[in-house]
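HUMAN: Mind making up another protein with tokenized structure?

ASSISTANT:
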Amino acid sequence: MTQLKESKQSRARKMMLWFGIASLLMTFAGWTSAYIVSSRREDWLTDFELPQAFWISTTILIISSLTYWMAVRSAKQDAQGKTRGWLYLTLALGLAFVAFQFKGFSAMIASGYYFTGPTSSITLSYVYLIAMVHLLHVAVGLISLGVVIYQQHKGAYGPGNMTGIEMGSTFWHFLDFLWLYLVLFFAFYR
């Protein structure tokens, strides 16, 4: 009876995660739609190039998705040491992603592109807004990853209990694919 209850709770938690992901998808779809509509403005920048740091951070995030996948795989095999190693590597890569995002913002500012003010542009205001909100969600993903690491140290994950690590991984992969979409959108939509 207890295992049935845990299975139902696991399904309910995963369903709530997917509802949250769907909500975030709609939010970012709305912002990218607004970006497209606003691109008809006369003051729209068409020659803006994303800083190199954003491309580096994209590569880092893709690699971190792979390391999180390896952590889940190791947990399923009950390889506790490997699981912890992959989780810590994912954390390091997540922090590197954040650092390169801020390098990208610094490069934009150094080029004279500001979020607001008399020298800002609507184009870059959208880029800042969307990238910063994504970065906020990455911060949530890092907190989630910290909880997963803490639980892993307590021996919480293994072949019989994968819910927490799988949910953390799902959210992390979502953030990865969302950023990949956003960076490609900004790079190729003029």
DSSP finds five helices and no strands in the chain. The mean pLDDT is 94. The chain has one domain: 47-188.
